[in-house]
Amino acid sequence: MAESAESSKDYFVTTVNEDHDITCWGCGLRLLLPSYAPVFKCGWCGAITNQNVNKPESKWLWGRRLRDRCFVIILFMFILFVICGGVWAVYPVVFSISNTLGIVHSILTVILAAITVSTFCLSAFRCAGTPPTVVWGSYPAVGKGDLENYTFCHYCSKPKSPRAHHCRSCGSCVLDMDHHCPFIGNCVGAANHRHFIAFLFAAIFSTSYVSIMSTYAGLHIWPPVKYRSLWHSNSFSSNIAIQAFKEIMLAFASSAVQLSARGLVLVYLFISSVSLQIGLGLLLWQQLGYIYEGKTYLGHLSSQGSGDDRIEEKDCQNILRFFGCPYSISRYFPSLRNSPKRHLK
C-alpha cells in the first residue's frame, strides 16, 4: 500500500508492512498499526484485540460438569439428612419436655429448612448472569465507542464486556462473576449473587439452631457420667489437673458407648453443624468484605495481578446497593451518601 503527497513538486512515497494491516473484530474496519502490537484498541468502536490468544481446548468440560453435579447431589442429600435426622432425633425429646417447646421447635425447623433449601436451589439452578447482547462485526451497525473495552471471547466466539468473565467449568461468559462454586454446581454472578449470600446466611442460622437443639436434646438423653473425685487434696498441682482431665474424658467416652442411635445422630449433628458454621462464616465474612469494597473475588485477583494500586472507596452503601435496599435508607448514613460505587470487574 502506498501513499503519495505532492508538495513543492516533490513526491514522497512510504510503504506499510502488510503484517501491520489488521482488521478489528468489533467493527470490521481495517487498522494500520505503526508496528506489530499483540494487543491493541480500535480507535472507532473501542474494542480490544489480543492477537496472541488462541482458542483453547475444552475437552474436560464434561468432567468438570460431572464433578459439579456430584457435589450438588452430595450437598443436597446432606441438607436433607440434617433436616430429617434433626427432626427424628430432637422431635420426641422436646415434645417430652413441653408441648409448647415442641410446637415452637417444629415451626422454626420448617421455616429454616424452607429458606435454606429455596436459597440453595436459586443459587444452584438459576443462571448466574448473561452478558448483554451487542451488535458487532459491521462498521455501519457499530457506532463510535459502542464496544468500549470489549474483548473477544475465544471460547464463546462472541464479544465479552469488561464486566464479564468466561467460566471454563460452565462453558459460558458470566456477568459480574465472583467465582465458580462446585458445591452449588454454578457460578456466582450478577443474577444469583444475592441468593448465594442469602444461602450462606440461612445455612449459618440453620446450623446454629441445629447445634443448639442437638446439645439441648443430647443433655437430656446422655447416660450418667461416672468418674472418681480427684479433689480430695487441698493442694493443686499440674499432675492432678492432667489426671482429672483424663478421668473426665474417660468417663465421657465410657458413657458415650452406651448412647442410643438417637444420641449418636445428635453427636454427629452437633459436630457437623459446628464445622459448617466455621467454614461458612469465614466464606460469608470474605464475601461481605468484597461487597463492602465494591469488588468481586475475581476483580480483587485481577487488581492484584495487574499491580493496580488504586484505592477503592469502601462504603456501606455498597452493601445496601448490593441487596437492593431503597434509596430512602441512605438518610440513616449521611456520611455515606451519593456514593457512585458499583461492582468492579
Automatic annotation (TrEMBL):
Name of the protein in question: S-acyltransferase
Comment field on protein domains: The DHHC domain is required for palmitoyltransferase activity.
Known EC number: 2.3.1.225
Keyword annotations from UniProtKB, A to Z: Acyltransferase, Membrane, Transferase, Transmembrane, Transmembrane helix
Residue stretches spanning the membrane: 70-91, 103-125, 196-222, 265-285
Keyword NAD: no
Topological type in the membrane: Multi-pass membrane protein
Species whose genome carries this gene: Hibiscus sabdariffa
UniProt-annotated location(s): Endomembrane system
Magnesium as UniProt keyword: no
Coiled coil: none
